[in-house]
Write a structure and sequence with these properties.
The protein is of the alpha+beta class. About 20% of the residues lie in helices and about 35% in strands. The protein contains six helices and 19 strands. The strands form three sheets. Strands 3, 4, 5, 6, 7, 8, 9, 10, 11, 12, 14, 17 and 19 form a 13-stranded mixed β-sheet that branches. β15 and β16 form a beta hairpin. α1 packs across α6. The mean pLDDT is about 100. Bound molecules: zinc ion (ZN). The site of zinc ion has 4 residues, from loops. The site of zinc ion (ZN) has 4 residues, from loops.
Length: about 325
């Protein structure tokens, strides 16, 4: 059976790329998101994958760029649908939010066909996403520094919670944040349509980070193998799971020095960071409120009072 996504159309054993139209730019040119359809020679499940839903998060594009040339439709059972760049307008400017409506794309799902720019892009991608059996929404911690992890956003009472947790474990970054997400996230909206969805968060960087991209590539192939798109087997490793997420801000203005490394275990009361003046004089010290793992930090050292400094994931276990 031929599978179509936008102008990309592939019969069994074929691969095609094209554009998924989502409106026009300010000069009236048509906007088409780059899409690919990989239609396996044999029947099987459908995987939907997308990247750059936040326009400055490029690692997911790096993953797709490395995965697609390695896929041979003759060896695949099932279909892979890919939107390579979701947040078209933000990507052009290398910024996080869609500049047309100043919206974060991953708060706009499931979208609205006659809504704002972001809502229309959300609707145009939600339709093929929820036609699939599994969804990977490739993100990263924006341009902050962050560990590689996978987010389960449906919430622990959701009927697909176990399926989403399994998908996160199979992807296998080593860390999972299992916490109900805010309204409008694809990884929260799509499970309501019955599709297990996770949001791999591949590090955080300006531009591309090779080690996070490699983990993402491995994760995609783990998923393709575990769910039967590719022959073979993968053994899932136990994942370190966090169910809480505490954010820390600066008590005063100055320069931040971290006293823990990303990925370090922290105990309640452990020093996380110091703030100093430009002359090295101590201004403030901030300690962890609870046990956890240093998960994400700001990239630039300078902070104003109250400005975001870091996040500690809490309520840690293994599964
Ligand atoms: Zn993101």
């Amino acid at each position: 059976m031929t599978t179509t996504l936008g102008t990309a159309s592939a019969g069994p054993g074929e691969i095609d790329t094209g554009r998924l139209e989502v409106g026009e730019t300010r000069d009236g040119s048509s906007v088409g998101l780059p899409v690919a359809v990989i239609n396996g020679e044999r029947a099987g499940k459908t995987l939907y994958m997308q990247a750059a839903s936040d326009g400055d998060e490029l690692n997911g594009i790096g993953v797709i760029q490395r995965v697609v040339p390695r896929l041979d439709p003759a060896e695949i059972a099932g279909t892979i649908l890919i939107v390579g760049i979701v947040n078209y307008h933000a990507f052009q400017l290398a910024q996080h939010r869609n500049p047309i409506d100043d919206t974060k794309m991953n708060r706009a799902y499931p979208g609205n066909e006659s809504g704002t720019s972001s809502e229309r892009i959300a609707a145009a991608t939600f339709a093929p996403a929820t036609s699939a059996d599994l969804i990977l929404d490739l993100h990263q911690g924006s341009t902050s520094r962050m560990i590689d992890e996978v987010r389960v956003r449906c919430g622990k009472r959701h009927r697909l919670h176990d399926e989403c947790l399994e998908l996160a474990k199979v992807f296998g970054c080593g860390y999972v944040l299992d916490q109900k997400g805010p309204d409008g996230q694809l990884a929260r909206a799509a499970p309501n349509e019955g599709v297990p969805t996770v949001d791999p968060e591949l590090g955080g960087c300006v531009g591309w980070d090779d080690s996070s991209i490699r983990k993402g590539v491995e994760g995609v192939f783990n998923v393709l193998t575990h769910y039967g798109f590719l022959d073979g087997s993968v053994s899932s490793e136990p994942q370190t799971r966090a169910r809480g997420f505490d954010q820390y801000g600066a008590p005063g203005g100055g320069l931040v020095t971290f006293r823990k490394e990303l990925g370090d275990r922290v105990g309640s009361g452990d020093l996380l960071f110091e703030v100093t003046t430009p002359f090295g004089e101590p201004k403030a010290e901030v300690a962890a409120d609870s046990d956890g793992i240093l998960w994400r930090t700001r990239r630039l050292p300078q902070v104003a009072t109250g400005e975001y400094v870091c996040s500690v994931a809490t309520d840690i276990d293994e599964y």
